[in-house]
Amino acid sequence: MSSTKGLEGVVATQSAISSIIDDQLTYVGYTIDDLAENSSFEEVVYLLWNQKLPTETELKAFKKQLQDAMDLPEGVITHLHSYDLSTVHPMAALRSAVSILGLYDSEADDMSDEANKRKAVRLQARMAAIVAAFSRIRSGKDLVKPKSDLGFAANLLYMMNGEEPKDIEVEAINKALVLHADHELNASTFTARVCVATLSDMYSGVTAAIGALKGPLHGGANERVMKMLTEIGEEENAIPYIKDKLAKKEKIMGMGHRVYRNGDPRAKFLKKMSKELTELTHQPKWYNMSIKIEDYIKQEKGLPANVDFYSASVYHSLGIDHDLFTPIFAVSRVSGWIAHILEQYANNRLIRPRAEYVGPQTREYVPIEKRG
Ligand SMILES: CC(=O)SCCNC(=O)CCNC(=O)[C@H](O)C(C)(C)COP(=O)(O)OP(=O)(O)OC[C@H]1O[C@@H](n2cnc3c(N)ncnc32)[C@H](O)[C@@H]1OP(=O)(O)O
Ligand SMILES: O=C([O-])CC(=O)C(=O)O
């Protein structure tokens, strides 16, 4: 029995949700290019959960369901007020708040398809509300309720900032949400599937997935990219900084990918938005620095920029706090986690691989009084 480190190349399940073939990403058969150019985030969520794009009537009804589900249970708001948010990472807060959300859902352990679909809507809507609430409470501001005439992306920004976002901001955040929604068997999605394959509930699966997304080798990289750009400070420092990191064998955040070797098809959209938004906000240095780093890493290590790389300067240009970058990723990715959770339930088998044992051979047991 031999093992594959990090399960690289191992096909662990069948899935009809998203595919990565020859560096092309599709959601239920639609290319990410078509979806990013044409779809609202709600359309994509509907697609992931129903394996078809909605009609206008279906989309209208689905948007209303999400809208109506955004109110947070009082207990979750009380919980968010109960500790010092200034010392807590918002991904840890989100992980705990989603777990607590489950305590206020009377259907949490109802495993019927109907109840799971209703919980899916509540989780999708309320994760956005939790991230917004965290941000408002942390800065001592009142919570903002969503507006019925705004879509999901616009409401996310509105609930965070308390003012209606500009069209270009809505377009950027909508595109970012679409691009982050699902990604085959990435670490957090796999975590969600492993969890619910024990027939545990959806809140447990999503809570576990948030924990996996938080790490810097996965969703947590976007925040670290901005930390790196901030440390670099000015364009002329970029290459010396990267050379120094590589010499110390440190990883460059936002670079490299387990599956994509030639390029992440989502990065080009974020790169374009980064250029536009950094120019618009008179901070082109973040984009200019980023392209220098991307070119250098490509040339030196042959590694491509991943989805987290340019999303950092996009979110920064939108005025989003750096530690909220990964929670926003989670607000999008929960749609994919849920699609995978539903798929796992529909065709379940416990996920339980084996380990190749490399410890000591069977040894003689020595009673404690005789151990030297
Ligand atoms: C949404 C997402 O999750 S996208 C990924 C977000 N994560 C990051 O951006 C963190 C930085 N990147 C990485 O750590 C990695 O590229 C991962 C985790 C994404 C993929 O990792 P793996 O497939 O396990 O590749 P692995 O870490 O084995 O790297 C292979 C080689 O490339 C190097 N390498 C990979 N990524 C990087 C990087 N970002 N910077 C420098 N070197 C790198 C490794 O050091 C290794 O070199 P070696 O063979 O000389 O030891
Ligand atoms: O697929 C992966 O390993 C990581 C990734 O890009 C994602 O989750 O979007």
From TrEMBL:
CDD domains: BSuCS-II_like
Keyword Acyltransferase: yes
Top-rank lineage group of the source organism: Bacteria
Catalytic activity entry: oxaloacetate + acetyl-CoA + H2O = citrate + CoA + H(+)
Pathway: Carbohydrate metabolism; tricarboxylic acid cycle
Keyword field: Acyltransferase, Transferase, Tricarboxylic acid cycle
GO MF annotations, alphabetized: citrate synthase activity
One protein family per Pfam: Citrate_synt
Family: Belongs to the citrate synthase family.
NCBIfam families xrefs: cit_synth_II (TIGR01800), PRK14034.1 (NF010637), PRK14035.1 (NF010638)
Protein name: Citrate synthase
Natural source organism: Tigheibacillus jepli
Gene: citZ
